């Protein structure tokens, strides 16, 4: 069972919120998208991605998909979203170049199946330890992984926001797929770069440690990111794995497509 909450905020600088999210605690599905800043119709790309992936993953869960079937469903869902957004961008001058970062997960039988493309992140927290579960699709992340760049230098690198993979940039995409165990009392965080680009690793860990509920964690994340300047849209989803006799919360509304 899950306790899950989400929150999205425009921040203090942007004139619109280009993030989107959706979750369904009954199906244990959670999705977050971040429209690419500086591109046309980023908010439309994000909303479309969340809708398409949400529908596909809901079908997969309702159909009883397991193991590799869920992995295939995640990959297919990301490909469908990218193809749709790319096609719409090519058919309208107003939508030309629209794209988004996207991350989606399913919890099933104590395992998390996760897919992402771009720089929206997933973290796993347990007993004062925070682990980043995704690697950004950026040249900077590749340099860090290979040992050519120190993590603390990443924030000042001129390519920190350049994505080598996103949804809608190409008609076909290979999502980054991972699978890892999740146990009771662990907390899973999905977030846009408006959060992790503003709050450091230790601060994110401290919020998850202190917060009494996922809703409180989401509220604190947004408040602290705004206090740090709120340079970007801020979107977070926090899910806590509960013992099997816990009570679920309701389903978040699917964001509208403008």
Note down, in words, how this protein is organized.
By secondary structure, this protein is an alpha+beta fold. It has six helices and ten strands, in the order βββααββββαββαααβ.
Put simply, the count of helices is: 6
> SSE order, as H and E?
EEEHHEEEEHEEHHHE
| Major sheet | 5 strands, antiparallel
Unreliable stretches, pLDDT < 50, 5 or more residues?
A: 245-249
* Helix and strand composition category: alpha+beta
> Cα distance, first to last residue?
33 Å
Provide a brief overview of the structure.
This protein has 258 residues and is α+β, with helices and mostly antiparallel strands. The chain is built from 6 helices and 10 strands.
Question: Could you name the key traits of this structure?
Answer:
258 residues, alpha+beta, 6 helices, 10 strands
Per-chain topology:
Elements lengths: L1 E8 L9 E6 L4 E7 L6 H21 L5 H24 L8 E9 L2 E7 L3 E6 L2 E4 L6 H7 L30 E6 L5 E5 L1 H4 L4 H10 L3 H14 L6 E8 L17
Antiparallel strand pairs: 1-10, 2-3, 3-4, 4-5, 5-8, 6-7, 6-9, 9-10
Helix pairs in contact: 1-2, 5-6
